[in-house]
Amino acid sequence: MSYLWQTLLPFATDSTGICSMFADSKALIIGHDPSSSAVRGYQLTEHREDKTSVNVGLQINEMALILGDLDYYVEKYYEHYNQKDHQDCDLIVLLHAPVSSMINLDIRLCAKMLQQKLPGVTVLPMDNNGNRYYDEGLSMAYQEVLKLADSDLKEKIPNTVNLLGLNTLDYPDAKDRQAIQEAVCHQGYKILSVFGMQTDLDRLKQSVQAEKNIVVSASGIFAARLMEEKWGIPYSYLTDFIVDWKDSRMGQALQAVNALSNPKEILIIGEQVSSNLLRLALKKNGSPKVTVSSWFILDEEIKRDGDFVIQDEAQLKEVLQDPRYDVVIGDPVFKAFWDDSSKRSYIELSHPPVAPNNRAFGGRHFREHRGHP
Amino acid sequence: MENTQPVQLFASRRQRPSLSAVPQTQTLFIGAKECVRHCSRRSLTEESRAALCLPDSEIVLGNTEPLIIEAIQQLYHQAKDKPRGFFLYTGCPMRFIGVDFEGVTQTLQTLLPLQVSHIEQISFMAARQSGGLASMFSKAIYQLLPKGQSDKSTGVFLLNGSAPFAPENELLHYFKSNQIPLLLANQWQDFDDFLKVGNASLILVTDGDLLEAAECLKERRGIDYLYLPLSYRSEEIANAYSMLDQTFAQQTDMHEFFYQPQNNSYTRLDLDLRSAMRPWSLSRALLEYGFPVTSIIASKRLRMDEDDHSEVQVVLEEDPDYQWLKQNHPKLPIQIESQSHSHHQGRQGLANGHREGRHDHHGNHNRPQGQTFGEQSYWGYAALKNLAEQLNIRRIGS
Predict the structure, then answer these.
(1) CATH superfamily ID and name for B23-142
(2) How large is the average pLDDT for residues B124-144?
(3) Which of A2, A5, A104, A366 to mutate to test the interface with B (most CBs of B within 10 A)?
(4) Is B306 in contact with A131 (Cβ distance < 8 A)?
(5) How large is the ipTM?
């Protein structure tokens, strides 16, 4: 049954992607819900030392949500902004909670009303719903930020690029992120802005003057197409660059595969662009067939024959038990369905949206004794 | 004696009852993915075996009920050890859309040999009357019992929370010394053991948060209950013993237990009552015993309704004591703060009846030896003795 999660915890949702994007900015992120679930889910997924954003829940009661008094909500947002530690925030992000999304609260209108009260602050509404995944949240956030850019600004800054989708959820290891930036700069480019982290609204508004966009994770694909359409900025993928992963998280996964003796078929379960990068590196070493599968965005443009989307646990179990794949690369939590007695190899490549790396919040699903249902 | 730091009077670490305390049951969480992840952060999925994350499209098209039934059937048939009970734990969207859980429960109980209970996560600020999560979870546990009439064959049932009563607890001592059989919550070996609760002759409740669960048992099984709250006042404790003696035809010699704290050293007393049970009753009792309570740190309100703008946490039962304080000590400063950090320091805490550890706001915690986790050792006069120990005062009284 596709909606049923029996062993794994459902993965990080769109609100987590949005919170992650703005985590290192002076943003006040307000979840329109009574129990702060919109922002607390993010805290389960990653813990960042460089976090400067403030995440709060609106903490309204049931009747307030039913009555749908937008003036009341805006007053509550305003109250949050006026709290002692929030007043140096220059950006307010309004998130839906599952309930507010389901009853179609007009969060855009709320954002407009709040903007009128706070002219010196940027207010961004998000159309998250608490059921889509983190990458769609990231993608949504990129597109909302692009709405702030001047659509008539066509002048380009030579040799500059934007990295679309360089985020801490898909690339949790700082060494991975550094390797990517080095690969791009090595080609003579200057990085104008990054979509996914280090969010600086002025730089993001300036991003439309980049000469080129480089899509670093699947979350950046839609923003790339939008910028091509609106500002004429061409885009390519990180797979066009040679990345020296060294001993980063990606590098270690590659080394682990290379240490195996001639695997015939490899399955990678992960985010699409980074998985494609691994595939490229593995094929160079002579691996004959590499298939990429993902729970998340799997775009047709960069999909290869045989790549597929994983819909549910039953399919994951089937895939992991498929004897075709000599090697599977994926998050450790998928090993709940792995047959340890098989002679095949499982290479661990952690992916925070799939399993939290903050042990303080690890629930039952992340204990070592977790087994099959 | 002058205390420079607020004395944190630490009662048993209060936890919500755990659904997994009922053996041979499973829990299905139904809600958005975000709700499931949020609950797991709070470890509410400690007992959660599965989650059903329905997209909005299924919910608004009215497919929720059939999908829940399908999910439970799948979970049941796939389980190696068949569960005897299921908890349906739902998040806010389900409440909003008005899912027919009664119908789902009845259908499931027809299709499968199961008892089903629905627990609704009301994340919205609930009214003051609600006992919060402890009440919700307790009620859900006893809603698993089939409706009917108790045959009163299994003895008295002590409905306590998840923290077990320590063996030296005065109330347990009463039953042991009078040889009255007592069933305890959270010690069930299997589901049939749990079902024995349904044939209890009487329910005893000591925690106000669990009164709703007692009402539920009364409604479902026709079992009366006796509320004997933890108290810090001698006359209330004496009254509780009288009620017990009357109910069980006993005669307790109060002199054996009687104790009343007296202030012999404090010139000022600043209290941190965020972790204390019945904090306002405690404050009033201390003042009446002659302790110079000079300030109180109280919990920030976790619940509110539209008409209540108070920020202080005061449950209805304690309202008279809170009003007494406001009227008789209007200048007593009451500082409102979030729940004490000690609640979030993992599974560490003090048992009642042990010496208090001083807790300051930097997290330094001087823990005495011999502490255990989460056992409530006091009830009755032991509450006062414990209080005296925590205040480091010499015991006075016969």
Answers:
(1) Nitrogenase molybdenum iron protein domain (3.40.50.1980)
(2) 70
(3) A5
(4) no
(5) 0.89
